[in-house]
Amino acid sequence: xxxxxxxxxxxxxxxxxxxxxxxxxxxxxxxxxxxxxxxxxxxxxxxxxxxxxxxxxxxxxxxxxxxxxxxxxxxxxxxxxxxxxxxxxxx
Length: 91
Fold this sequence. Notes:
alpha+beta, about 90 residues, about 35% helix, Alpha-Beta Plaits, YCII, 4 strands, Dimeric_a/b-barrel, two-stranded antiparallel sheet, 4 helices
């Protein structure tokens, strides 16, 4: 999931702790592989370990950034073929 901020960075950052806590909860469920802010900070990337795009949308609907209309996501499917994530356990 690739996000684009819809509000000034100051507004996004005011909710950042809640967003990070949300991601931490997903990590505890083995749903987040990795995540981080884009550079420059126009949005972020969340790599999910889910079975399909519908599940990804369902999960990210609970992101505080989405709930407060501070960001929107685009789903981009990806299957790692090389590197550190090549053999990552599938959902």
